[in-house]
Amino acid sequence: MSSSQGAKLADLQRDMKEPTDKTTLTSDFGVPQTNNDDWLKVYSEDKQGPFLMEDNFGREKIHRFDHERIPERVVHARGAGAFGRFTLHTSIEDLTYAPILTDTSRETPVFVRFSTVLGSRGSADTVRDVRGFAVKMYTQEGNWDIVGNDIPVFFIQDAIKFPDMVHAAKPEPHNEVPQAQSAHNNFWDFQFLHPEATHMFMWAMSDRGIPRSFRMMQGFGVNTFTLVNSKKERSFVKFHFTPELGVHSLVWDEALKLAGQDPDFHRKDLEEAIENGAFPKWKFGVQVIPEAKEHDFDFDILDATKVWPEDLVPVKYIGELELNRMPDEYFPQTEQVAFCTAHVPPGIGFSDDPLLQGRNFSYFDTQLSRLGVNWQELPINRPVCPVMNFNRDGAMRHAIHKGTTNYWPNRFSKVPPAPEDSKTSYVDYEEKVAGIKKRARSAKFREHVAQAQLFFNSLSPQERSHLTSALAFELDHCDDEVVYERMAQRLAEIDLGLAQSVAEMVGATVPDKAGRPNHGRRAPNLSQMDLLPAKPTIATRRVAILIADGFDSVSYTAVRGAIGALQGTPMVIAPRRSAIKPAGGGASVKPDHHLEGFRSTMVDAIFIPGGEQSIKALSSNGRALHWVREAFGHLKAIGATGEAVSFVRTAVSLPAVEVSSSEEAVESYGVVTLGNPNTDSLSKVVDIVKNGKKFT
Ligand code: HDE
């Protein structure tokens, strides 16, 4: 870790405590204590005597425990975080004077918190939902919080709708059901009655709503911010983070199963990668529109329900975000981290985006009930640069200010305002504003379907089919006919074929004509197939190697080596976790898990080496068969050699192939089989995983 990134770590260390071998127990007020197991009682050897309330140490322990919980976030309650760094490779000084976007020698410490939106803190990671992507950059000119999502648009245009939107999406009020799901009447009732949500629900129902990993999703600032340069020229800007590993998703059945089998799937995945040194990275980019071109588009660039299509406004990549250290303790760091969209450093500003303006108010306010008025003093939230002003007191104040004055102006001229002409001072942009005060939205804000069509048209056939199934799943969970009937009409405004397929599945009246014609236009990078990694990789991908006693160690060793060399994560799975013996003697292998304890959903690909006895055991093991069939059903790459070939092909009902002499790998629907182990052909399995290919 470099010294500048270490600035935040050094700052946090001021509050860190770690016991040594010599540390002994004390009370909270520092008095050494001799017993941490027995409450003070009236003692007698033959009879349990009364429990004494005078046990101050026991009472302190219980009181502290009673108050361990704070209110969970009203949205984005479940999250996982990590530390890292932001670096800039290309200055944009023509657009902004913000040093973090102009000084390429800088490295800025960051903390990122990923989250789901709807579920409670204890819900599952893999539910269908939008993911939060909140980045706190501890810049030398103050904290910069980009409080983004993995989807570039939002359900509402105006902050005043946020409580309605969240109420409708969260569990229903009468019975608090369902948990962490949008598949219910109220959510879809609101989606129909609130047409500006149309574009966003298409994204949420697409594969973007079920990411494979936090490391494989994009981050978007969503709202329109502004950049100001030294000549006081202003541009509009959207912020993007694009993952180096490409954008990948689960399939729905996998997501559903994982929610029960491993509810912490995403947070464990983040930790596993960072602990293994495979640091997740994102390219950081900006889309920029000069102020003079604000009105050149057929959508309003301040409307958070619209993307700026990348063929019209390309993303310019200028920096990199890397995550490389896990938090030391969840509560004081990941739980108490508090973001605020209003936190921007000098050179970056806001626009009249009516969602952003409301957010700037809301985030500070929500921290007051979650953490109290001194939330910005908490170690995870405090900046690495000096903080000085006359804000004072309040519950849980930590800072101690010396001196006799707590106001400005004061007779000592202490803490005067910073100079306006400095690149490190925040100066409000002087904007001429005119208009009439009115509760209304301007004309372009009233069009809601064109970009929903643009998104749908841009998807690959597989993604469209997943989206259709997702809508059919969700509306199947709505038992109020009004809700699914209306939604079928809304879908017909986007695409008639989509509406017809979903309506038929959910028992709604099948529309026979489009609510409006599909304009047929597409744009780049809306489909995640456009966002596969520039350099295909299996780094950090889990490849299960299924073996039983008598496995073929040549093939096992070759594939294990190939996975390891490409920084993939091989995981050996067997009918039991005690040592498994190869055919013909040699070193046994201790599996990572047994077939029952671990599931195919938790890996990205499977490889099965041959070995007569091993395959006999696996073919007669129902759980092994289920592993292979389930992985095939989830469109994962499966490799098999020797005797495993016919086991796999029979299990997934593929026609038999002649294996005895085959040196050539045969691939069908992601299943790669070859007779004799041979490293070139084995790499084909690896290639499939590498290309992030899933098969329909
Ligand atoms: Fe948030 N949002 N939001 N939001 N949001 C919160 O702040 C809010 C919106 C987002 O990991 C809350 O500290 C309003 C858009 C993330 O701690 C709250 C509006 C986007 C996180 C709040 C929006 C987001 C939050 C709850 C409409 C994507 C988690 C706890 C005007 C760009 C941050 C908290 C974390 C959290 C309000 C809309 C993303 C209540 C009023 C659009 C990633 O203040």
UniProtKB/TrEMBL annotation:
- EC number(s) from the headed UniProt entry: 1.11.1.6
Q: Which reaction does it catalyse?
A: 2 H2O2 = O2 + 2 H2O
Q: Name one GO molecular function term.
A: catalase activity
Enzyme active site: 76, 149
Q: Where is the Catalase core domain?
A: 26-416
Q: Which SUPFAM superfamilies match?
A: Class I glutamine amidotransferase-like, Heme-dependent catalase-like
Task: Note the superkingdom of the native organism.
Answer: Eukaryota
GO CC, any one term: cytosol
Provide the residue positions that the database annotates as binding heme: 363
Q: GO BP, one example?
A: response to oxidative stress
EC top class, in one word? oxidoreductase
Keywords on record: Heme, Hydrogen peroxide, Iron, Metal-binding, Oxidoreductase, Peroxidase
What segments bear the compositional bias annotation Basic and acidic residues? 11-21
Which cofactors are named for this entry?
A: heme
In terms of InterPro entries, this protein maps to: Catalase (IPR018028), Catalase_AS (IPR024708), Catalase_clade2 (IPR024712), Catalase_clade2_helical (IPR043156), Catalase_core (IPR011614), Catalase_haem_BS (IPR002226), Catalase_immune_responsive (IPR010582), Catalase_large_C (IPR041399)
* Function per UniProt: Occurs in almost all aerobically respiring organisms and serves to protect cells from the toxic effects of hydrogen peroxide. Catalyzes the degradation of hydrogen peroxide (H(2)O(2)) generated by peroxisomal oxidases to water and oxygen, thereby protecting cells from the toxic effects of hydrogen peroxide.
Q: Which family does it belong to?
A: Belongs to the catalase family.
What's the protein name? Catalase
